[in-house]
Description:
- The complex is a heterodimer.
- Helix content of chain A is 32%, strand content 27%.
- By secondary structure, chain A is α+β, with helices and mostly antiparallel strands.
- Chain A contains 10 helices and 14 strands.
- Chain B is globular and about 85 Å long.
- Chain B is of the alpha+beta class.
- Helices cover 29% and strands 24% of the residues of chain B.
- Chain A binds chain B through residues 1-2, 4-5, 40, 44-45, 187, 189-194, 196, 262-264, 266-267, 270-271, 273-274, and chain B through 105-107, 110-111, 114, 267, 269, 628, 630-633, 671, 685-686, 688, 691, 693-694, 696-697, 753-755, 758-759, 762.
Amino acid sequence: MKPAPFTYHAARSVEQAVALLGALAPEGGRILAGGQSLVPIMAFRLAQPSHLIDINRIPGLDRMAVDGDRLSVGATVRHAAFRASAVPGPLGGLLATVAAHIGHGPIRARGTLCGSLVHADPASEWCLVFATLGGEMVAHGPRGVRTIAAAGWFRGIMTTALAEDEMLVEARLPLLVGGARFGFCEQSRRAGDFAMAMALVTYRVVDGRIIEPRVGIGGAEAVPRRVTAAEAVLDGHVPDPAAFARASDVAAASIEPMEDPQIPVTLRRDLVRASTRRALLGSLQ
Amino acid sequence: MMGWAGRPILRLEDPALVRGQGHFTADLPARFRVRFVRSVVAAGRIVRIMPPDGATVFTIADLAGVKPIRPMLHKFGYIPIEQPVLADGIVRYVGDPVAVVVADSDAAAEDIADQVEVEIIAAAPVTNARDAAAPGAPLVRAEVPGNIVVEAAIETAGHRLAISRTHRVVACSVRSNRQNASPLEPRAAHAAFDPASWRVTLTATTQTPHMMRTVIADLLGIREADLRVIAPDVGGGFGQKMSLAPEFVVLVWLARHLRTSVAWTEDRRENLMASFHARDMDLSVTGAFDAGAKLIALTGEVLANVGAYAPYPNTAAVEPLMSLAELPGPYDVAEYACRVRGAVTNTCSSAPYRGVARPALTLAMERLMDKAAREFGIEPWDIRRRNLVTRFPYVSASGLTYDPGTYLETMERALSMADAPSFRARQAVARAAGRYLGIGLSTFCERTGYGSPAFAARGMDVTPGWETVRIAMDPSGAVEARIGASPHGQGLETALAQIIADELGVTPEAIRVIHGDTDDTPYGWGTFASRSLVIAGGASLLAARKVRRKLLAIAATMLEADAADIMLDDGAARIVGTDRTIPIATLARASYHQAHRFEVEPGLAESATYDPAGTFSNACHLAIVEVDVETCAVSIERFIVAEDAGRLINPMIVDGQIRGGVAQGIANALLEEVVYTDAGDPLSTSFADFLLPTVREIPRIEIAHLQTSATPSITAAKGLGEGGAIGAPAAVMNAINDALAPFGAEIDEMPATPARIHAALREAG
Lengths: 285, 765
C-alpha cells in the first residue's frame, strides 16, 4: 500500500455520495472515479485525502446517451467507451479520434471523461473537447444541482468551477450537425504521453466557404480555450492550405505558452502552429 | 545429426516465467518489512533523527560495527571514498538512506517512515561535473581535492608531432545525459536468520551473488560460511544489480540483530532516485587527419559525473577508465592522447550500465567521423572505409589487442541492406518536398568476455574474470551444470545447455543449469560485461569435455572398442560406422554402480575453470530517420544492425539481445534523461518523467550476422550483451544530424529532445 492512510467509502447512490462528500470534503474527502490521476499522486503521497468516496458502484452513472441535441456522459463512463463511435454523426468520429490519444489501454479502460474534466490537467484531451465544442457540466452538491457551461468551468491549472463539496455527475456535449468537419492533432513525446500542444478544429462548409469555425488549443496554456482570432481568419474563407496556414500562424501568435524547462516558449508556439495546421488539414480527409 | 549449438531453440527458462511460476525475491514472506528513510536534501549535516513513539527505527549509531563500503583501485591516483551503509552524520544526495524502519507490513513501514523527522542543516550542493571540476568549487567530500576522484592520462610518444604535421584537425564535443538502467524488477532483498545454524540467507536481486556474499561478510565482520546469498529469478539488471546496494548490508544486519526474517522491496521512485545512475559524461575529441582523410592522431578529454559514492566492486573510476582504454574504438589510429576525470557530486552514484561509457564514447567517435567526412566532402561510409581497422590482430594505441573481426564488412553489409547510394536520391526528393530524412552510421567494437588480466589492468582490489563450471551427470543420465555466472533474463541456461549437449550427446532439455545460490554453485563472478556466454560457456565446454572423456572411456570398455572410435549422439554411445550402441544412461549408471570395471575415477562429476584474454565483437548500426523540423520530433524509419559476435550458439537469443539493447540505445538517443535541479532535487522520479521507449517508438530492427570464427574464445562465441546499447545512440544521432544538414544545424547532446533540436535549429538560423 503506497498511499497515506485514508478511509474508503463505497457510495451506492449519487445522493449518498453527495452527502458523504458534503460531510467529508472539509476534512479532505475526495471522489474516486477511475483513479488514473488521483491514485498515482496518492502513491507518491503528493495527495493525501483522508477519505475516498468511490462512485464506481453507483448504478446508472455509466450512462451515455443522446438526449435531444446533446450527448450526455455519466460520471463513470470510461475513455474506452469512445473508441468505437459513441454517437452517430461527426461527434462520434471526433470523440473516437481524440480518445485514441488518451494514455494507454489500461488507462482508457479505467479513466473517465468526467474525471478528466474535474482534474483539469492543461494537457487533457477531454478538456480541450469541452472548451472547443462548448459543453456543460452538471454538478450535484449540498446546495442542489447546477449546470456550469464549459466556458466558465476551467479556472486555471487543475482548477475548475466545481466546489470541493460538489460532485460532477454528468457532462454534456452538443451534437455536431451533419456535414460538420473536424480535425485533431496532438504533439507528445511518446505515444500516449501528455500533450505538449494540441489543436481541435470544427467547421462547416457552405457554398464552398467555412462557416462556424471553432479552433481550440490545449496543452499550451493553463487552460484549453478557443482562439477566436484564428477562427476569424477562417470564417468565410475557402478551406484551403493557405487559409489554414494563416489561421495557424494567428493561433500560434495568440497564445501565452506555459513556462517549462523541457518545452521552451518558442518551441511551444511552433507546436501550436503545427498542431493547428495539421488539425485543419486533417479536417479535409 | 546437426549439433545443438547454432540452433534457435526456444529458451528452456521461459515456460515457467511466462506461466507466472517464476520465483522472485519480493514473493517471499517475511516476519518484518523494511522501509528506508531517505534524505530529501542533496547535501547537509544531520542534526538529529526523531522517530515517532513506539516505532522500530535504526540509524548508523545502531549499526556502529558495520564497516563502510569502500571499493579500492590501486592506480590512476584513485582516491577511495567511503559510503556508510546508512548516512553517518552527512547526507550527500537526495535519496541517501538515513534510517531504516522495521514494521509488520510495507504499509505500516511506509507510514512510519513518513513520520520520522530528520533535521538536516543543508549545505550548498554541487550537482554537475563541470561545476564540480571548476576551480574554487565547494568540496563534495573533504578528502577529494577539487572533487576529482580519479584522473588518468595516456599519450603516445609521437602524438604531438603527428598533430603538428596533419592536414586537417576536426573537433567535436558531445554530452551524454544521465540515465537509469530501469530494470523491470526494481531492487529487492529478503534476509532470513536461521537460529539452528546462526546463518543468514540473503535472497536478493543481484547479478553477482558470490561477490555479494564476500563483501557483505567483510562489512559485517562475519565468516562467509555464515551467509548464503541467493539470486532467484531476477527481472533484468543491465549492470544496476551488479553493484552492492547498501540496503542489502542493512537487511543482513537486521536479520542477525532481530534474529528473524526481514524484507525490502524498492519502489520505482526509489529506484529512479537512489539505486544507481550512469553515463553522465562530457567528452571532447579532436581528430587530426591527413589529406586522404585518414585519422593520424586522436585526442580525447572526458569528464564523468560519478555521483556521491563509489559502487562496489567497480569503484567510481569505472566510466573514466573505460573511456581511457576504449575511446579509439574500431578505428586505426597510431597516436593517441587522452585525459579522463571523474568528479564527485551531490547526485546518485554512477555505476555500470549496459555498455559502461561506450555509448557515449561511440557517440563522440562517430560524430567526429561524420563531421570530418563533411569537412572532407566525402560520405560517412567513405571516411570509415579509410579508417576502420582491417588487419588483425591489431594493437590499439591504448594497448588493447583486437582479435579478428569484420569492422569493414559489417558496415558494407549494413550499407547494402539500406541501399545507401539510392537513399541519397530519395533524401533529395524528400527535401525538395520539405521532409528531412537522414542516414546515420555507428561502427564500433566491443571488448567482451574478458578475464582477470583485463580487470587486473585497472588495478582493482577485486579482480574478476574467470568462471568455474561443475557438471555432473547423475546415475540416471540427467545432467546438472552448476555455474558461478548469474543469468537474469539473458537465456544463458539455454545457451550453456546447447554447448554441453553437443559434448555429452544428450538433448538440452536433459541438462539443468543451476545458478544463483552460493551454497550450490562454485565461486564465480556473476553475469555482467558481456562475459557469461564466453567465459561460463568456455568453462562449460571444458567441464563437459572432461565428462565426455569419462563417458567414452566407460563406453570403450562396455562396447569393447577404442574410445577414439566412439561418438556420443542422440542419447547413445555408438561405434562410428556401426549400429553398435549403448545408451548414455547405461554408461552413467555403470560409472557410479560398476565403477570397479573402469580405469577412470568413479562418478561423472567434473569441474573446469576458464579465464580468457577476451575477444572483441563488432557491429555497424545504421539508422534512417525523419526529423519533423516544425515539431522537432524524430521518427525512425529503418534500423539496421550488421554484427559479428563470432559463432552464434543460439541465434534467436542473439537477436533478442540485440533488439533489447537497440531499444535502450534508441531511448538513450531520444528519450531517457535523469534531470536534477541546481538544488540537487531529482525531477525524474517516475516513468512519467523518465521516458522509457514503448513499442510505438521502436521500429522493426533488421539484423544481419557475420560470424568470425578465428577468435581466442574456445567456443568461438564472442560476447554481445551490450553491443545493441553501445551502437544505437550514435547511429540515431548521426542520422538526425544528417537530416538537419541543410539547415547547418548540429546536435551533439543526447537525448536529442524536441527542445534540443529546436535550439539547434534556432542557433543555426
